[in-house]
Amino acid sequence: MTRSDSDTETAPAGASGGTQSLERALALLRAVASYGEDGARLADLMGDTGLSKATAHRLLTALARERFIDQDPRSRRYHLGPELDSLGRIAAARHRTADGDTAAPGPATVQPTAFLRPDYQGDAIPLADLLCDRHARADGARAALLHESVAGQTTELSFARLARDSARFAAVLRRLGVGRGDRVAVLLPKGAELLIAALAIWRLGGVYMPLFTTYSAAAVAYRLADSEARAIVTTGFLRRKIPRDNSRPVVMVEGDEAFGPGADAVPFWSALHESAPLGDVARYADRDAFALIYTSEAEPKPLGVSLPVMALAGIEQYMRIGLDLRDDDIYWNMADPGWAYGAYYGLVGPLLLGRTTIFCDGPYDVRQGYRMLTKFGVTNLTCAPSQIRAWHSADPEGGPNKLALRILSVVGEPLPPELIGWANRVVSVPLLDQYGQRETGIFMMNRYDPGHADRNAGASLGRPMPGFRVVILDPQGREAPVGGAGEIAIDVDSSPLFWFDAYANDPGRTAARFRHGRRYYLTGDWAFLDSDGNIHFRGRASDAIVMQQAD
């Protein structure tokens, strides 16, 4: 496993000179401001921003050169510089109150992580605007989706088209009685209809509930009943999995068996094009659920995990820091959007950042995967361990020689060192293990460090993502010292990116997650912490629920 505890040092010209470097510099300024008159140490700033020593020092030097930052020569602490004072006076003159007085500044509490962004706080968050409409206004022609069929045909859905079609489909769902807080089951293969349905649900203030297409009929029936889904969006073929006594409205994508067993269903595209687009966008509160994802079909009682709007902060943090997603990357998350990792970071994450989602039909096939990587020039790939194993089994000598890959991440379970070494050798880029659960999103990661690409952390799970404090608890609920084994836990009080509150359908299992009190969320996984801050996996308890259990 390649270890990295630092930020990137040699971003391509399109990234280092653009948005990414600007965001990092602003993060440093906010971090320095948060320490007030005491000033900030370099180590403080590295911890707050997740930047490496080299990157933080390089940006601080540039900011000092422009007089945005000062460094005390004796204490070596960083303070805001005189240029910010000048600019602040100009801004203050521009933003005076009606009676002529300058509004008093609030306390310096801004931190450099995404969780304090106002976009994800409050009780009036226009989710559909965050995930689609603002991108359509900025660059409507940009692809929101590239969809590859099994036959190799590519279709594109722009953000402008996604905005228009989802507004029309929202009107269809509203006529079927869908409103704020209603769960809508989406049993669809990967394609344009899935994105359109999700955005339409969010325009209405509803809750998107993906159903994995390989679920059995019994698994589908359980989730429909347990969630009290208000409506279902599916295809003719997949409708076979819906109970015969279903009384909910069904919208069915035209195509396979459009006039067979599903002739009584509302036709997806016909109804969409016959509808006037819905003009308004519903507002969510930060703790309102906008998605509901159930645990594996193998669970004796599948648990419903509600994803609140505030989780967008952690999703953005992971996309930018954990995956090192750059402005010029071609990003492909191979996980199915019916699973947590695919839903969080393959559907919501790209929409949030205005990036292109790539969907490919059918189950994973190594030759198809190679075609996708070469056809689209994928530079940033994330997938399940099973896909890496399939890659190794089908093609042990490696695939195409001219892959554009820059970084490869896996999540779901620790990979053995020999498989990591094989992947590093075949694709010539580091393979980085990430760790998380449906209830948390990714919160521990091995980070890409091009300056130390060969450094190894002894097959560790990595370090906590900025915004989380991760500890090891002994059986009595006490934090274990370095080297001590115990259960991986999140210190909720010190983890502003933590969002899980309770299962939607099992108070008992919720209580088990917090059996030492609400201070600690327990993962059910066992590990130990080494002296460098890396966490090493040692085993999984029977009730542990991982991010992805199938693909």
UniProtKB/TrEMBL annotation:
Protein name: AMP-binding protein
Domain HTH iclR-type: 19-82
Keyword annotations from UniProtKB, A to Z: ATP-binding, Ligase, Nucleotide-binding
Family note: Belongs to the ATP-dependent AMP-binding enzyme family.
Annotated SUPFAM superfamilies: Acetyl-CoA synthetase-like, Winged helix' DNA-binding domain
